[in-house]
Design brief:
Layout (H helix, E strand, L loop, with lengths): L14 H19 L7 H9 L2 H7 L6 H18 L6 H13 L4 H21 L7 H72 L4 H30 L1 H8 L13 H10 L4 E6 L7 H21 L5 E7 L5 E9 L11 H16 L3 E6 L4 E9 L8
Parallel strand pairs: 1-2
Antiparallel strand pairs: 2-3, 3-5, 4-5
């Protein structure tokens, strides 16, 4: 058929494009051998002539829709009208299915339907004994049109399903990249901030207090190694995701941090020079992995931002469960310096705030971040607990 590749339904090869020509071959055999009368040369010749457009279609030779109708309908009409053989209607039915399936122009489809219906009616005149079959033959015309329409609809739905699947894959990949970016950002921002503060303290104490400087460098090394392990773990989650799902996860892989690690996290920042008053009241609280990691990262980001943007200012951090024991509440608040250096107002800070908001939304919670009327910077988040993971 003379259709461009863009208008041809996708996915037609090899299923439908192979099935219909095969069915046309079967229809030709029915026309030849289906009658009780002796086989005639008219039926044999025109049955094989009617297969030519189907062979061309298998060879991917494009035919004009009108040419396809002519090359299938004329041999069928010769079998029905010249040889009084109603078996010639079956190749005509398949031609109707084909042109309807490929959404040819309305005039071409109408021409095929009228030609096939005319053959069915004409068969009753050239073969008077076939009057009783005329109604069934005319019904076959409608069935052929309906079959073509259903095939086209099925193909359209399959194409739509493939498109939706591709979009879903792209969305899932984008979400995975965003998740990994958040993890890497939080780990790197935390480790660099704490490590640089330890290094700065070591440099200042190098001449006056070598032991203190060595201790600061040792703490910086420890934080750096832990952060490097965390980065490797995050990258490993991306690289070995399918392998781990298959059950080959290594038993020695370090677990992701959770709310129970917040006290040790606070200790790291205190060692780095942050004045933090922390209250973490989460005894006997069973939080899901996602909720627990979200709370930990929020506390980490809040303390990192306080060190970077308000050095020397005290930070108040409180993590607790609400009265209904259904939501973990996190509040972090610190004074805002009167003047913030320009280097602290770059896009990297925006990435941290954006990452916090994305994490909380992904966990089904809510968050408010920004300055208050009393001159402080406040982070307030509420994350619902995941009781589905509560131990029995």
């Amino acid at each position: 058929m003379s259709e461009s590749p863009a208008t041809r339904p996708s996915g037609t090869r090899p299923s439908t494009t192979l099935a219909l020509p095969t069915a046309a071959g079967v229809a030709a055999l029915i026309a030849i051998f289906g009658e009780n009368d002796p086989i005639t040369w008219i039926t044999v010749v025109f049955a094989f002539v009617g297969l030519v457009p189907w062979v061309l279609e298998l060879m991917r030779v494009r035919l004009d829709p009108l040419g396809f109708v002519a090359m299938t309908m004329l041999p069928a009409a010769a079998i029905v009208l010249l040889d009084s053989n109603p078996g010639g209607l079956f190749p005509a039915y398949l031609a109707v299915v084909w042109i309807t399936y490929h959404r040819s122009s309305r005039s071409i489809v109408a021409l095929g339907l009228v030609a096939t219906a005319g053959m069915a009616i004409g068969c009753s005149f050239v073969q008077p004994s076939g009057y009783e079959g005329t109604v069934y033959f005319l019904g076959g015309v409608g069935v052929a049109w309906l079959a073509g329409a259903l095939l086209h609809r099925q193909q359209a739905l399959m194409a739509e399903l493939r498109e939706v699947t591709e979009r879903e894959r792209g969305r899932a990949a984008a979400e995975e990249r965003t998740r990994i970016a958040r993890e890497v950002h939080d780990v790197v921002a935390h480790s660099l901030t704490v490590t640089l503060l330890h290094v700065t303290g070591a440099r200042r104490a190098m001449t006056s207090d070598p032991e203190r400087a060595a201790a600061a460098l040792e703490r910086a090394e420890t934080v750096g190694r832990e952060s490097l392990d965390s980065i490797r773990q995050v990258v490993g989650l991306l690289r070995d995701r399918d392998t781990q799902r298959g059950g080959s996860m290594r038993l020695d892989d370090a677990p992701l941090p959770d709310v129970s690690d917040i006290p040790s996290l606070v200790a790291q920042y205190r060692d780095a020079g942050l004045r933090v008053e922390a209250s973490c009241d989460l005894d006997d609280v069973a939080a899901g992995a996602m909720t627990s990691l979200t709370v930990f990262r929020l506390a980490q980001e809040a303390m990192t931002n306080s060190l970077r943007h308000a050095p020397g200012a005290p930070l108040s951090l409180r993590v607790h469960v609400d009265e209904d024991r259904s939501v973990i509440c996190l509040t972090a608040e610190n004074p805002v310096p009167e003047s913030v250096p320009r280097r602290h107002t770059d896009s990297d800070a925006g990435l941290g705030l954006l990452g916090m908001a994305e994490r909380v939304r992904a966990a089904g919670g809510s968050i408010e971040v920004g300055p208050t009327s009393i001159g402080t910077w406040r982070v307030a988040a509420e994350i619902p607990l995941d009781f589905a993971r509560e131990p029995s």
